Amino acid sequence: MILMMVTGQMSQKAVRSVTVRRGGQHLDCDLVVVEEPLEIRLNDKPLVVTMRTPGHDQELAAGFLHAEGMIATGSDIASMRVIPGETVASSRIKVTNFSGDRVEVSSEVDTTPSVSTASERTFRATAACGVCGKETIADLEQTLPPVRSVQCPPQLFESLPQSLRKAQELFDATGGIHAAGIFSLTGDLLCLREDIGRHNAVDKVIGYFVLQNAVPLHDRILVVSGRAGFELVQKALKASVPAMVSVGAASSVAVEMATSAGMTLYSFAGRGTGNLHIPEPRQHENQGQL
After folding, report:
1. Are residues 225 and 190 in the same domain?
2. Bigger pLDDT: 98 or 63?
3. Are residues 158 and 227 in the same domain?
4. Catalytic residues
5. Domain of 10, in residue numbers
6. Is 7 left (phi over 0), alpha (psi -120 to 50) or beta?
7. Domain annotation covers residue 145
8. Which end of the chain has a smaller Cβ tally under 10 Å, C or N?
9. 27 and 124 inside one domain
């Protein structure tokens, strides 16, 4: 019963009850976030295995493919299906016993170069890593679409992390999960996703709009519960998000990437204490204003 209440729309597989010892000898139960692998396959070829929290796996796959430039909208996806993993009995002693779910995506878009390169790498992404599997510095480069800069009151940016936090059901239950939310320019929460990996949470929430054919997100704000690393800013810019708010700090590359692209970045979000990184002035820029 508790599981249903705390997970909401998330999969019931997202949390697990464990026995803990509190106060010396007292045995009790606690809820922890589940971390399991998900394989994403594109056109029958393995693409990536990422450690994630089960739930909204199709959105995760769509967001990942969009961030990697393999699809532009949901219309580029011909079909998508989730294949549940099967727990296989083994006589070997293992630290973990993963079920290994899989998302199979087919697309009529020409993705041959990207898929073959990824297959040759055969990489694994942990919940903490947004760039695992990249072999060279050049692999980190992405072609980014234009961003329409927006001007919002700092008070709006200050209020968004609290709105995000109030909607985090899994964090309330476990205290150990990241979140990403897409807001309107007037502060309405449009979609929230939680995941053990912060880059997965961003892929899921952007993937939701990809599957709705609602990208680019020219008039939206991305809010993340952790820090603003360059890989999260890059994912946001791939979706043309013009403003991003992070509860934690921003890295030097994240600030440079955001401001040079025309994105407003608000880090260390707090009442009157946040850091507002202003986009660099650009000629012939289309600016939206509340």
Report:
1. yes
2. 63
3. yes
4. 129
5. 2-33
6. alpha
7. no
8. N
9. no
